[in-house]
Amino acid sequence: MSFDYGTRRTGVAVGQRITGTARPLTTLGMPGGQPDWPAIDRLMRDWAPSDVVVGRPTRMDGSVTPLTTAAEGFAAALGRRYDLPVSLIDERLSSREAETELRRQRGDGSRGPIRKPDIDQEAAAVLLRDYLASIPLPSAPNRSETP
């Protein structure tokens, strides 16, 4: 499961490690700039992820911003709350990539108008696909070897 953290909205996506695929799931509101923990609790219960990815926003030169610190705090809170490994991944240009993909879908007629919450959840899917592409696949046991 991945989160594209924001102070107004947080996009969420789910994926599959073996296939390396990810899809947008939902966009959560951030009441008062805080995570919607009851909604996140439901997602965690329903999807039972093995680990979590959170986008780490930085400037194009890699320097941190106030949102970087907030996203890192959110990632740490997720790890403590759900006792899961949480990985931070560079999210530079993920929203732009998400918007490009959504415009492509709109252009080929497979989707309707694009809203900001759509971009947030598609950006979470971009982050998760990038993360899944960066980790090795679990290896299958070699059946020719004798145990």
From TrEMBL:
Subcellular localization: Cytoplasm
A cellular-component GO term for this protein: cytosol
Source superkingdom: Bacteria
Annotated region described as Disordered, given as residue ranges: 93-118
Record-level Gene Ontology MF annotations: hydrolase activity, acting on ester bonds; nuclease activity
A single BP term in Gene Ontology: rRNA 5'-end processing
InterPro entries in UniProt: RNaseH-like_sf (IPR012337), YqgF (IPR005227), YqgF/RNaseH-like_dom (IPR006641), YqgF/RNaseH-like_dom_sf (IPR037027)
UniProtKB keywords: Cytoplasm, Hydrolase, Nuclease, Ribosome biogenesis
Signal peptide from the UniProt entry: none
Domain YqgF/RNase H-like: 1-98
Similarity comment: Belongs to the YqgF HJR family.
Biological role stated in the UniProt entry: Could be a nuclease involved in processing of the 5'-end of pre-16S rRNA.
Protein name, UniProt field: Putative pre-16S rRNA nuclease
Species assigned in the record: Acidihalobacter prosperus
